[in-house]
Amino acid sequence: MYKNATIKVAPGATKCYLGEGPHWNPVKEEMLYVDIFGKAVLRYIPKTQECYKVVVDAGPVSLVAPITGHPNKYLITIERDVQVMEWDGVSSTPTSLKKLATVDDHCKTNRINDGKCDSRGRLWAGTMGYEPAPGKLDAKKGTLYSFDLDGTVKKHFDQIDIANGLAWTADDKTLYYIDSFSYRVDAFDYDGESATLSNRRTAFDFKANGVEGIPDGMTIDADGNLWIAVIHVDPTAGKKLGQLDFPTKNMTSVAFGGPELGILYATSAEHFLSKEELEAQSGAGALFEVRGLGVKGLGAGMEYKGVV
């Protein structure tokens, strides 16, 4: 199905221990991503093949998004905090950090895992319990939140294992969401005005479709189909359309970027790989680019438009 597709490491991009959260910023033509346990935010510029990395010593950094009207400020999450990072985009240390909100005070070993901004510029992000080793997780400790433009934090539901990928449809009426250990993509009716979810149902079941692995980060293409690090899914039919084969097994998230959103970028990780696996999988932790898929992204990553 993808006979014209080419997969390669993005030239010049910095490897990560646990790469995640790819976000295409069309204003600066850059791919933002994070190294969660490297406590870092990275900006990769495909045109020049340059990559800049800022290390945030405060804790694991799990997502990044630009902030409207503030070209040197980025919304990031550090452990259980939502923060604004001021960064010149080049230096190895941030200019400043400002905390906006903290969640999950009842469980201080939790951390925010994944999130994105919706079309109105509010952040949606979910948490997960402590995970000391693969499959060893403080189960059902996570919660999905939204962070409104005025700073209000809204809890949507809890009992989550690992809050993960999010994607909205073109009409902004459906939100797709992943809890990794449910092995499903769920769909919700989405009201963007009030930031409410309803009518939860299964859009794609990994086990029922014979798909191995754990669902992780996710994006949506212009055809309304999902890419889930890294399988291709029709969520309306609940069917797998195809799969991309990378030179490393620990793929973490995906986002379309580049000219006309025609390149699929994919993050990966060394995290939880054995010494033998790392030796055999030289691409572990790399940022990959996939060209020639014949599809384009539905839209670039949304900016945060709330209080800073």
UniProtKB/TrEMBL annotation:
The active site is at D216. Its EC number is 3.1.1.17. One of its GO terms (cellular component) is cytoplasm. The keyword Chloroplast does not apply. Binds 1 divalent metal cation per subunit. One of its GO terms (molecular function) is enzyme regulator activity. A divalent metal cation binds at E20, N164, D216. One of its GO terms (biological process) is L-ascorbic acid biosynthetic process. Keywords: Calcium, Cytoplasm, Hydrolase, Metal-binding, Zinc. The keyword Magnesium does not apply. Substrate binds at R111, N113, E131. InterPro entries: 6-blade_b-propeller_TolB-like, Regucalcin, SGL, SMP-30. It comes from the Eukaryota. Its cofactor is Ca(2+); Zn(2+); Mn(2+); Mg(2+). Residues 18-269 form the SMP-30/Gluconolactonase/LRE-like region domain. It holds the Pfam family SGL. It is found in: Cytoplasm. It catalyses: D-glucono-1,5-lactone + H2O = D-gluconate + H(+). It is an enzyme of class 3 (hydrolase). Belongs to the SMP-30/CGR1 family. This is Regucalcin. It comes from Folsomia candida. The lineage of its organism: Eukaryota, Metazoa, Ecdysozoa, Arthropoda, Hexapoda.
